[in-house]
Write a structure and sequence with these properties.
By secondary structure, the chain is mainly beta. It has three helices and 25 strands. The protein has one domain: Porin (Beta Barrel), CATH 2.40.160.
Length: 479
């Protein structure tokens, strides 16, 4: 009996030992490996680039929009082919745009080193239709920051107004380079408690609205109404601001100086003709962004500015960005709203007569529900020419003209946008805007040769209004 008991106990012990050995040989579930290491230093969405101490965040958006009389959201219909309103004009314009953003940051002994890019492509009605050849590159952010310095392409330090907060359309009035970017190098000094001051040296060609040479016949075309005679850039625009950012919002006062330089006297534009002396244009302004207390997410913003010789600081949409200045020419049958947008005007002799202008723009946005919001926005712009400039412009109107002549003109805009988010990060929006151009002071009639299927004849000078609307679908994939 003892022998049987010993055999049974020995067999059981052997089986237990064998089972333990086999269990030890079974595969064990591996511990999860984190291939992407999260970086929490700079907020949500950042992760470490493998093998480095640099953190990066990727984002962007894809957009489709359908515009009616909105000129592809780039500008309102103010001149050139878009302003003639003939059978050849596109009343409906579509646009598709895709943008990728990158935000890379790392710590250094001088603070955070940051580089940011936003680039993409778009296709708009009227671009080339050959596959792959019609896309337009869109790059509006390419900058580096370190220890208070900013260098590259970003919004001007003059601007506080943020158009996309309230509208889909790039407005003519006010100064907002956020949608295009501005080449600059700047330094921002922080005083603490949200108070800062910045000094920025910015590319001057982005802020040119043309210098009109009254000795050259005024033209009408897609590039503008005046024959531009801006000389080459010889020093940057100097921009400064004093700003405060706190929980209630932000406020800023700002100023800028801008070189207003012409090429040569006379229609032949020869060096031997001499040239007017260089002038210095300037602009001052102030702005406020307020997080209103009655509802979460609701905001109110306003920006106002005054200038002499630097029109784009009060009306960014009138900047030509080249030697040719922009103007206003909106036709309604045999009527036309006609205005001249210049930084200055000069004649066959004498100095450059600087243009004065002021503008104010404001917007308010209310969230009805977390996924439904509506904005109301608008602004006013006034251009004033002194007696000498008025005489030069009125004496150089294209063709014969009749009636008393006053070169001053004004415009205002008022619009509303509603955005619905059926799901997170998807915007469905409708934006409606009314533009009113008040330019009748130039006289009774003027003879124009506008082209673009418009006949050469006398047109009656009037005030004109233009409605426009836009529907947009945008998928945001910011982290």
């Amino acid at each position: 009996m003892k022998m049987v008991k010993s055999l049974l106990l020995g067999s059981a012990a052997g089986l237990v030992a064998m089972t333990g050995a086999q269990a030890a040989d079974l595969p064990v579930k591996a511990k999860a490996v984190q291939y992407v290491k999260i970086c929490s230093l700079y907020g949500a969405g950042f992760y470490y680039i493998p093998g480095t101490d640099t953190c990066i965040k990727l984002g962007g958006f894809v957009r489709y929009e359908n515009n009616w009389q909105a000129n592809g959201s780039f500008a309102v219909r103010m001149n050139g082919a878009t302003g003639t309103f003939t059978r050849t004009s596109n009343d409906v314009v579509t646009r598709a745009r895709g943008v990728i953003t990158t935000d890379a940051r790392s710590q250094t002994e001088y603070g955070t080193l940051r580089s940011y890019t936003a680039f993409g492509e778009q296709w708009t009605t009227g671009d080339a239709t050959t596959a792959g050849s019609g896309a337009v590159t869109n790059m509006y952010r390419l900058f580096i920051q370190l220890g208070g310095f900013t260098a590259g392409r970003t919004a001007s330090f003059f601007d506080l107004w943020d158009t996309p907060k309230y509208s889909n359309t790039t407005n003519v009035i006010a100064s907002d380079t956020g949608g295009t970017g501005q080449n600059l190098i700047a330094y921002t000094f922080s005083f603490g408690n949200g108070l800062s001051a910045s000094l920025s040296f910015e590319d001057p060609t982005m802020r040119r609205a043309g210098v009109a040479n009254a000795a050259v016949a005024t033209t009408f075309g897609s590039t503008g109404l005046v024959t531009g005679s801006y000389a080459g850039a010889n020093w940057p625009d100097v921009v400064t601001n004093l700003r405060v950012d706190q929980a209630w919002g932000a406020a800023q006062i700002m100023g800028a100086i801008h070189a207003v330089t012409a090429t040569y006297y006379g229609a032949t534009q020869l060096e031997t003709n001499g040239h007017p002396n260089d002038e210095v244009g300037w602009a001052i302004g102030g702005g406020l962004n307020l997080n209103v207390p009655w509802a979460q997410g609701d905001t109110f913003s306003v920006q106002a500015a005054y200038t002499q010789g630097a029109l784009a600081y009060v009306a960014q949409g009138l900047a030509g960005g080249s030697a040719l200045g922009n103007g206003l020419a909106v036709f309604n049958g045999q009527n036309v709203a006609l205005g001249y947008a210049t930084d200055g005007v000069y004649g066959p002799t004498g100095s450059i007569e600087l243009t004065s202008a002021w503008s104010v723009y404001a917007g308010i946005q209310h969230y009805w529900t977390p996924n439904l919001r509506t904005s109301l926005y608008g602004g006013y712009l006034a251009l004033m020419y002194n007696a000498n400039a008025t005489a030069l412009i009125c004496g150089d109107l294209p063709g014969a003209h009749t009636g008393a002549c006053n070169a001053d003109w004004q415009m205002f805009q008022i619009g509303s946008r509603t955005v619905f988010n059926p799901v997170a990060n998807l915007d469905l929006s409708v934006d409606i805007l009314y533009n009113r151009y008040q330019t009748a002071g130039l006289g009774s009639t003027v003879v124009l040769a506008p082209g673009n299927s418009k006949p050469t004849q006398a047109y009656t000078l009037t005030d004109e209004g233009v409605w426009q609307a836009m529907f947009r679908v945008q998928r945001n994939f910011y982290p």
